Amino acid sequence: MSDISSIHPVDEKLPASRLATLGIQHVLVMYGGAVAVPLIVGRALQLSPQDVAFLISADLFVCGLVTIIQSLGISRHVGIRLPVMMGVTFASVGPMVSMATMAPGAEGARMIFGAIIGAGFVALLIAPIMGRLLRFFPPVVTGTIILVIGVSLMRVGINWTFGNPFGPTAPKLIDPTHTEWLAQMKTLAETGGPVVPDGFAIAPTVSNPVYAEPSHIALSALVLISILVIARYGRGLISNIAVLAGVVIGCIAASILGMMHFDRVADAGWFAVVTPLRFGMPIFDPVLIATMTLVMIVVMIESTGMFLALGEITDRPVSQQQLTAGLRVDGIGTMIGGLFNTFPYTSFSQNVGLVGVTGVKSRYVCVAAGIIMIILGVIPKMGALVEAVPTFVLGGAGLVMFGMVAATGVRILSNVDFKTSRNNLFVVAVSVGFGLIPLLAPNYLMWMPHAIHPIIESGIVLASIVAVLLNAFFNGVRFEQADAVEAARLADSH
Questions:
Q1: Separation between Cα atoms, residue 41 and residue 98, nearest integer Å
Q2: What global pTM score does this model have?
Q3: 459 closest CA partner among 438, 429, 473
């Protein structure tokens, strides 16, 4: 019988009760971030509440499945076999929202999932050569990209608080009397009166009473203040789940005020299988696949740094073979995500930080957490409950979550040498500027070929391309493993 002391802490099998407790802890830490992406994309696609709830359930289910594949491993070629929690990356949100805006509804969903499956397949193929690509993504590049991701996502959190700038919650509405006048003019045109020009439309001029309601702003502020107070005074797990706890407080307040309703939660079932291809066969558009592939490359760069850092935390250095096995799961998980109506997957850095904080290095804790996520995914009431959360409650949390992504980029950039290598300033300055173009001038691409719109209407993709090119121009291409590890240690917010 082998001595139990010879078992590495990563491979230690803890008692079931402890595994369950620690697994729940991991789930709580990542839950808020895990459900945010399906909420954002589902609502951008203008899907029904039932479909949005399904996206959330599918996301939880695939989170658990891919986490088990990564932590437990299928063979020595698939799965890094370290305590890793897999979740949807925020880096993919910008391009997906652009696709959703271009084609809302089921068709847009099919385009998004086709791009995800295609990008996942490419990621699977390039996993063995990612070591060579790392040289193009030093901290000055990854920090800049993450900063632009956070800044781009901030508008989502802000719109959650005040209302979307288009549709029923737009700041201005069309005056009904103006609509009536236009109808009268069209009637007159039919009887020989003046002809109404083609494409003529009434501009919205009336303030919308449901935009930026004071009560909505107050609840968003309550959530934000709650998160900050819990983060400041909470200890251990409580501090780590500050965002989730703040949202719960906001939901309780909204329920008391009659602003949150649970009808759809009551109607949802207790069990349902997560079915693949719910919205039909995916649409494989080469340009959209290329766009999402660029996102996957950035994601795999982050994963590489995360795996190297986790190897140091757990005292199990990661070999090139293990690194490739882990990156393959990013690709496989993303393909599974596209098939099961969900999104690209990567290791969640918050949970890597939790391993360091708790000192529990067993990968079986993450396997247990994966099982818990699968169970949550097949309970439709959980998805319906998350979907029922009012957007203005999420607004306060979104400000923190997406702001922390931007702050993470700043933290990574804080370790970049700007003093003796002033050219790094050009890399950051110009890349951020390009990243803000679609945000500040969304119509700039109106005369450009429609086929390239998915690429150039994403500030994240633009910033990524420009940052890589400028860094190669000013600094050449090189890679230091220590830089990737340090960047991963700092990237604990997305």
A1: 10
A2: 0.70
A3: 438
